[in-house]
Amino acid sequence: IAQAHQPLTQLRINGRRLNEHLSAFAEFGKNPQGGVSRLAYSEADLRGREYVMGLMRAARLNVSLDAAGNLVGRRSGSDLSLPFLSMGSHTDSVPNGGNYDGNVGSLGAIEVAQTLAENDITLRHPLEILVFQNEEGGLIGSSAICRGLTDKDLNIVSRSGKTVREGIKFIGGDPAKLAGAHRRRGDIAAYLELHIEQGGVLDIEKTDIGVVEGIVGTSHWDIKLEGLANHAGTTPMNQRRDALLAAAKFIDTVNRVVTSLPGRQVGTVGRIEALPGAYNVIPGKVVLGLDLRDLDAAKIELLYRKIVAEAQQIAQATGVTFQFEEVTVDVPAPTDQRIRQLIGDSAKELGLTTKLMPSGASHDAQNMARLAPTGMIFVPSIGGISHSPREYSRPQDITNGANVLLHTLLKLDTVQPN
Questions:
Q1: Dihedral, CA atoms, 413, 415, 416, 418, nearest 10 degrees?
Q2: Cα-based angle 70, 365, 76 (whole degrees, multiple of 5)
Q3: Would residue 96 be called left, alpha or beta, if left means φ above 0 and alpha means ψ between -120 and 50 degrees?
Q4: Quick one: 25 exposed, middle or buried, by C-beta within 10 A (0-12, 13-18, 19+)?
Q5: Between β-strands 84-90 and 188-196, what pairing exists: parallel, antiparallel or unpaired?
Q6: Cβ contacts of residue 66 below 8 Å, gap of 6+?
Q7: pLDDT digits (tens, 9 = 90+) for 365-417
Q8: Is the CB of residue 190 less than 8 Å from the CB of residue 157?
C-alpha cells in the first residue's frame, strides 16, 4: 500500500458525501410514497446507472460495461501479478421499494474507492467495483459472472416487461457475447459486500455491525392440492373434499414443523391460489408456494421430509391429494472465515459493536462465493423494514459500515484469506 496522507488507521470515508449521494440517487425512480420503483431494465434504472458511472469516474476508476451489462470500475494495483480485490452490490429495486437496499453497498464501495484516490493510496491488488444488474430479478448480473446465463435465464420476463435478453441490450450489454463476462476461480482474490440487514436484529439489539457468517440456502416448492369442487350449499360438511381446508391445515403444519426444531431456520407459505374462487363453490384445487431457508442444506432437507410426511396425514384425513414440485434451489453460501475475522477486527478498531449472524435474504455475494473468498457487512435497518418506502438506515450507521468496508479492504490487501 502506497503512503497515505495520514496513518491508515486514521483513514475514514466521507460520510456526508456518501449520504448525499444516496439521497441524490433516490431521485431515480422516486415514487409518491417516498421510495423508488427502479426496476431492472427500466428508464429509471438506465438513468440511475448513468449517475453511478459518473460517481465511479469521480472516484478515479476506469469504467466499463461487461457483456451482461454489469457496471465495472477498476484501478490498477502496484503488484501486476495479483488478482482483483472486488466490492459491490446492486442498484435496481423491487416495485415500490426503498432507498437503501443495494444502494448502500454500491455507493459505499465507490466512496471507499474515492477515499483511497483522494489520499493517493494504491493497493497492492488491483481494485474492482462491481454494480450488478437485475439482482432483484434473480441475481442475474452476478450469475452471468459466476456461472453464465442459460437460454431459460435470458427468456425470463423481468418486472419491467422486458426479457432478460432484451434488458441486457437495453442497458448496453451484448447477450451474444456473455461468455466474455464469465470469471473463473482465481480471477478475484476476495469479494466484499456492504448491505443493509433488511431485518430487525441489529436495530433491536442496538448493535452497529453485522458480520455475516453466510447466506442461507433457499428452496422453493409449488404444492398442488386436489380435492373436489362442489356446491357450497348442498354438500354436507362430512362429504366434502375441501382443498382449501386441507391447505389451511398444511400452512399451520409448516409453521409447527419449522418451529419444532432448535435453530434459526425459517419456513413460509407465501403464495396461495384457490380455485374456482367463488363464494358458493367448495374449493377443488389449491396451489401453494413453500419457502424454506437455513444455513445448513441438510436442515432444509430434514424440514422438507417432515413437512411431506405431515402432508400425507392431512391427505388421508381430508381426501385431498398433495403434489410437491421443486421450483428453485439456492444452496447455502458460507462466507470466508478469515474475512469474517478481518471485518470483526476492523469494526472493533473503529469502536463499533458486532454480531455474527446469517443473511436470510439472497445477495450477489451468494454467487460470488462460488468464485472467491467472500465477506458481507450488515448495517442496521430501522424497524427491520425493507423492500418498502419505509426502509431506512441512519446516516451514521451507513458511514460506519463504509468505514468497516474500507478497513477490511486495507487488511485484505496485505493478508490473504484462507
A1: -140
A2: 55
A3: left
A4: buried
A5: parallel
A6: 72, 144, 145, 173, 180, 181
A7: 999 999 999 999 999 999 999 999 999 999 999 999 999 999 999 999 997 55
A8: no
Cβ(190)–Cβ(336) below 8 Å:
yes
> Cα(170)–Cα(157) distance, rounded to whole angstroms?
14
What is the tally of helices (H) and strands (E) in the chain? 12, 15
Q: Global pTM? A: 0.88
Question: Are 67 and 180 contacting, i.e. CB atoms less than 8 angstroms apart?
Answer: yes
How distant, in Å, are the alpha carbons of 109, 121, 123 from that of 3? Answer: 21, 6, 10
**Taking the CB of residue 349, how many other CB atoms lie within 10 A of it?**
13
Task: For residue range 215-251, list pLDDT tens digits in order.
Answer: 999 899 999 999 999 999 999 999 999 999 999 999 9
Residue identified by cell 354438500 is 235
CB 314 within 8 A of CB 250: yes
Give the C-alpha separation, 346 to 218, whole Å.
30
The alpha carbon of residue 259 and the mean position of all alpha carbons in its chain are separated, in whole angstroms, by 24
pLDDT category of residue 2 using cuts at 50, 70 and 90: low
- What are all long-range contacts of 311-319, with beta carbons under 8 Å and residues at least 24 apart? 311/223, 311/250, 311/253, 314/246, 314/249, 314/250, 314/253, 315/246, 317/249, 318/227, 318/241, 318/242, 318/245, 318/246, 318/249, 319/227, 319/228, 319/241
Cell (9 digits) for 336: 470466508
User: Which spans in 28-129 are helix H?
Assistant: 43-58, 103-118
Report d(CA 165, CA 174) in Å as an integer: 9
